[in-house]
Design goal:
The protein contains six helices and 24 strands. The chain has 422 residues and is α/β, with parallel strands linked by helices. The strands form six sheets. The protein has a six-stranded mixed beta sheet, with no helix packed on it. Strands 14-11-15-19-18-16 form a six-stranded mixed beta sheet, with helices on both faces. Strands 20-22-21-23-24 form a five-stranded mixed β-barrel. β7 and β8 form a beta hairpin. α1 crosses α6, α3 runs parallel beside α6 and α4 packs across α5. This is Molybdopterin molybdenumtransferase.
Length: 422
């Protein structure tokens, strides 16, 4: 007699899993190796930006008060006493009607408070000395980039848990982070179960299929910023699977298996959890695909029993494992971002349970549209190719038509979201 499974709602299932969200420790890596890692600590400005008053243009640094009477009818001459490029410091003191030829990024001479752009000044020579002439006045501060005008020392600029993108990396370099505090990657163990599975290099045989889930999931794990420790595929044999899972549990932070979670004669994952003494958080969810997604915890360690059906496996990972990995990385927005989009085609299937349709987003005349990325069946693999999002069709609905507004979860987004579930 089969054990009866009680289906729970998706938000409840996510809540159950999140109770066991582990948090990774911090390690330091060279800035050259920090791309796409998650910050283990906030980035705080260690100095002002700009760090000194500087010229934002190539031109002439002047004392603004010397320019007040300059106009088209009354050109004013300045003696050019020195020339400095970025990285150099003016040595001479600037007196009345004197100027320093200055290049973008150079420190302003301390007596000067305005910069005349090269294009607005005329170079002349008098008595063998360089002069420049202007025909308009300048106010103190005109064309000066003041110290701290962008940010002040001590300001927190990026929160811990943010994924390092090119902009974050630029800030890290600005503040001298040669070594960057990042969150250590979790060890995410991965097993694919199924006697029918062939390795990627094996030729096809009757009754067998190639193992795509292991590759798909390891790629999904990479997309979130972690790496899979792939243990290989397992035949549907209870003892083999039990031993493998038990051994892996000692080595991993999170364990993912695919296949064998339903009610079939060779679906051993539920029995494995039972024999281990793991607490099953749920084994049936009111969703399609992936209704049989099972999650258990063993001494606080999460075991994800994802469905064997590729699309169900894919969705189960994104809904339940992704926020756990992102929480591990200290993300304050571990869930997928949810946006509104307009359905670009009819979707006539009824939805007794909440349906997550693999979909692709498109922009048309500034509006966001979404449509299924292929055949909507849980055993389908081809619809995953163009899948960059999941349309959420609420349970208890009778199908949707082109033009309807729907909620969509973003898969490629790296910022994430706080709790997106109603
Ligand atoms: N009597 C019932 N049968 C099924 C139910 C049910 O409620 N009652 N649920 C169905 C649903 S829904 C799903 S989803 C699947 C879940 O199956 P399992 O998680 O037990 O997975 P398997 O039986 O191992 O495999 C299912 C399917 O997926 C293929 N597969 C498995 N592993 C891989 C892999 N690594 N790469 C590619 N494809 C894989 C496998 O060959 C099967 O075709 O159960 C339904 N049945
Ligand atoms: O778990 Mo199954 O994918 O709902 O179809
Ligand atoms: Mg099965």
């Amino acid at each position: 007699m089969l054990d009866k499974r009680d289906a729970i709602a998706v938000p409840e299932a996510v809540k159950q899993v999140m109770k066991y969200a582990p948090k990774g420790e911090i390690e330091y890596v060279s800035i050259d190796k920090c791309d796409q890692r998650y910050l283990g600590d906030a980035v705080k400005a260690s100095h002002d930006i700009p760090p000194f008053d500087r010229a934002p243009y190539d031109g002439f640094a002047i004392r603004a008060e010397d320019s007040v009477h300059a106009s088209l009818d009354n050109p004013v001459e300045f003696e050019v006493i020195e020339e400095i490029g970025a990285g150099y410091i003016a040595k001479k003191e600037v007196g009345p009607y004197q100027a320093v030829r200055i290049m973008t990024g150079a420190l302003m001479p301390k007596e000067c408070n305005a910069v005349v752009m090269l294009e607005l000044a005329k170079d002349i020579e008098k008595d063998g000395k360089p002069y420049m002439v202007i025909k308009r006045s300048y106010k103190p501060g005109d064309n000066v980039s003041y110290q701290g005008s962008e940010t002040k020392a001590g300001e927190v600029l990026v929160q811990e848990g943010r994924r390092i993108n090119p902009g974050v990396k630029a800030l890290l370099a600005t503040f001298g982070y040669g070594r960057v505090p990042v969150v250590k990657k979790p060890v995410v163990g991965l097993y694919a179960t199924g006697t029918e599975l062939l390795d990627v290099n094996e030729p096809m045989e009757p009754g067998k299929i190639r193992n795509s889930n292991a590759y798909m999931i390891s790629s999904q794990i990479n997309r979130v910023g972690a790496e899979a420790t792939y243990y290989g595929k397992l035949e549907d044999d209870f003892d083999t699977c039990f031993k493998a899972v038990k051994k892996a549990l000692d080595e991993v932070d999170i364990l993912i298996t695919t296949g064998g979670v339903s009610v079939g004669d060779y679906d051993y994952v539920p029995e494995i959890y039972k024999k281990l003494g793991a607490e099953v958080l749920f084994n049936k969810i009111m969703m399609r695909p992936g209704s049989v997604t099972t999650v258990a915890q063993y001494n606080g360690k999460l075991l994800f029993g994802l469905s064997g059906n590729p699309s169900a496996c894919f969705v189960g990972f994104e809904l339940y494992a992704r926020p756990i990995i992102r929480s591990w990385f200290h993300s304050q927005k571990p869930h997928m971002q949810k946006v509104k989009a307009t359905l670009n085609s009819d979707f006539t299937k009824a939805n007794p349970f909440t349906r997550f349709v693999r979909s692709k987003l498109l922009f048309n005349e500034g509006k966001l549209f979404v449509e299924p990325s292929g055949l909507d069946k849980s055993n389908v693999v081809t619809s995953l190719v163009d899948c960059d999002s999941l349309i959420i069709l609420p349970g208890g609905t009778r199908g949707f038509t082109k033009g309807d507004e729907v909620d969509v979860l973003l898969l490629e987004d790296q910022i994430g979201s706080e709790w997106p579930w109603n």
